[in-house]
Design goal:
Elements lengths: L2 H9 L8 H9 L4 E4 L6 H11 L3 E5 L3 H13 L5 E4 L5 H10 L5 E4 L7 H8 L3 E6 L3 H5 L11 H7 L4 E6 L4 H10 L6 E4 L7 E7 L3 H14 L4 E4 L3 H14 L4 E4 L5 H12 L5 E4 L14 E4 L6 H8 L9 E7 L5 H10 L3 H16 L7 H8 L3 H13 L3 E2 L2 E2 L6 H30 L4 H8 L41 H11 L8
Helix pairs in contact: 2-3, 12-20, 14-18, 16-17
The structure holds one DNA strand of 34 nucleotides.
DNA sequence: CGTATATGGCGTACGCCATATACGGTGCCGTACT
């Protein structure tokens, strides 16, 4: 039976989309695969398909619980009952149940943090493992080094599971990020399937404003001209709130805000309203977007400069998954850079700080104190919790910390120098990425060409007037979408959201959300 | 960099203004409880 027949019989599709067949073939040949496929190209099939043919369990590492929920739900809805997930939203009993259920035919979704659990790993290793998938694999590079270091432990996990073949999937990776992913997963002799990140129907616009007020003026213009639904990205949580108030005052459409500090319920509610076309505009921090599968987002506006071109392409790429004309706008001022730069600053300790931290740890070790919990420890060091967790990861790597034991003899001048050098290097890398983003918008040349160059691609000849630098104006977009406008919006039920929320929380799927 | 809160001097007992300092983003987790 050939792959097309299987596709038809088991998955109900008549043909593969670009790249899918090649990727699936490589996976079936038991190769380690890195696939860079643009947003909306059908990544799920790339592991769903082989997981049904491969001998052994398929493990899928997913960065967000909401994303995991969605995918598991969709796959199960398609009739695949042996798709399970394991995460912190499950009760103890539910977890036990999942651990009993899993077998060599299971597809199991987990977070990288879950895979740090030794007992769980032993249970997983007791089953034959066929395929190890890392979804949204750019997270390894983007988050793994500092924010979510469990991403850097995945290589040990893969070894522990008996080296199943590995498939890393992402929509945005430069050559450098590709190398980082391959290196961090220790993928042996990998096959790389890379498809262009170019999305021709997305038109790019950059506008530099002199003041904050003028930024808002330009935004007002954009909202008059550009189509909705739209996402507006802001740099801080409070900015998302003030922006949504501003837009409401303009009567520019139904608006809500979204950021990581909101409760799970509120986030879920806003997300659902946006997906159901009950909102025109969502003002959000970078927390919003990953796994948002809404095909008809017409406009993405950035009210600041994202920290990297990768992040920009990820966020702007949420527009126009349906391949209809869409707009991506950046409105910025020179002052914008201080926020991203201060975030980078915040992530890494100062030299003096690092010295004090190591000294404190050495003292704890000398007094045979066993290592306290993360919250407690960050208090002792007067560090932010993410900072301490990052340091802990690297100290574990250097065998300074093992479990609750602090091997204080290893804490030396050399160790300080090594860590300090490493942190400085990473900090510089991040600052460079931001500078690249700055030069992307400051240049006088085609923005699309700049993006493609950044991703080591050549711009294909023949795209005229593709962005503001090529002379395109925001009034020129959306001419091609005329006939698809009117039937989009549904009437809004003013009191519907409470019932809707109750539905999401209580039944019929029984989610556990606190 | 801009904004919000905290401190400090004044010169008289509470309120005012000036200046100093802190903060800003992304998520998972057998779990800290108050």
């Amino acid at each position: 039976m050939n792959l097309e027949q299987i596709l038809q019989e088991k998955f109900g599709h008549t043909e593969f989309r670009t790249g899918q067949k090649e990727i699936i073939q490589s996976v079936l040949e038991k190769r380690n695969v890195l696939a860079v496929l643009p947003t909306g190209a059908g990544k799920t099939l790339c592991y769903h398909f082989p997981s049904r043919l491969i001998d052994g369990m398929t493990i899928v590492v997913s960065p967000l619980l909401s994303l995991m929920e969605d995918q598991v739900h969709q796959l199960r809805a398609k009739g695949d009952k042996n798709v399970l997930q394991l995460n912190g939203m499950l009760t103890f009993e539910e977890r036990k149940h999942v651990l009993n259920e899993i077998n060599a035919d299971t597809m199991l979704f987990l977070s990288p943090e879950m895979l740090a659990n030794r007992k769980l790993l032993q249970r997983l290793a007791s089953i034959k493992n066929g395929l190890f998938v890392v979804d949204e694999a750019h997270c390894i590079s983007q988050w793994g080094h500092e924010f979510r270091t469990d991403y850097l432990r995945l290589k040990e996990v893969i070894k522990f599971l008996g080296n199943p073949s590995c498939l890393a999937l992402t929509a945005t990776a430069t050559n450098k990020v590709e190398k980082d992913i391959i290196g961090q997963l220790e993928m042996d002799d990998p096959v790389i399937h890379r498809y262009s990140v170019n999305r021709e129907h997305i038109k790019f616009f950059v506008h530099k404003a002199e003041t904050k007020q003028l930024k808002l003026e330009y935004l007002k213009n954009c909202l008059k001209t550009l189509e909705k639904p739209a996402i507006i990205y802001a740099p801080t949580r409070s900015d998302t709130i003030s922006l949504s108030r501003y837009i409401e005052s303009l009567n520019a459409g139904l608006t809500a805000y979204y950021h990581g500090g909101m409760s799970k319920e509120d986030r879920l509610l806003v997300q659902h309203q946006f997906l159901n076309n009950e909102l025109d505009i969502i003002c959000a921090t970078s927390a919003f977007g990953m796994g948002i599968n809404k095909p008809d987002i017409r406009t993405v506006i950035h009210m600041h400069l994202p920290p990297s071109a990768e992040q920009f392409v990820q966020e702007a790429g949420r527009a126009g998954r349906d391949e209809a004309e869409s707009a991506a706008v950046i409105i910025y001022t020179d002052e914008d850079k201080y926020i991203p730069l201060s975030f980078i600053d915040l992530e890494f300790p100062e030299e003096q700080e690092l010295k004090v931290w190591l000294r404190t740890l050495k003292q704890l070790g000398q007094n045979n104190v066993s290592l306290p919990g993360d919250g407690e420890m960050s208090k002792i060091l007067q560090a932010e919790e993410p900072q301490w967790k990052m340091l802990k990861f690297y100290l574990e790597k250097e065998n300074i910390i093992s479990g609750p034991v602090i091997n204080e003899r290893g804490i030396s001048e050399q160790l300080f120098n090594k860590l300090n050098r490493q942190f400085s290097y990473r900090k510089l890398e991040k600052e460079r990425k931001f500078e690249d983003m700055e030069s992307l918008v400051q240049g006088k040349t085609c923005i699309r060409a700049g993006i493609l160059r950044y991703f080591d691609e050549e711009k294909e000849a023949g795209i005229e007037k593709c962005c503001s630098a090529c002379g395109l104006s925001i009034n020129d977009v959306f001419s091609g979408n005329k006939n698809m406008q009117e039937n989009r919006r549904l009437p809004i039920e003013q009191n519907g959201w409470k019932e809707e929320l109750a539905q999401m929380l209580i039944g019929p799927k029984r989610r556990t959300i606190r």
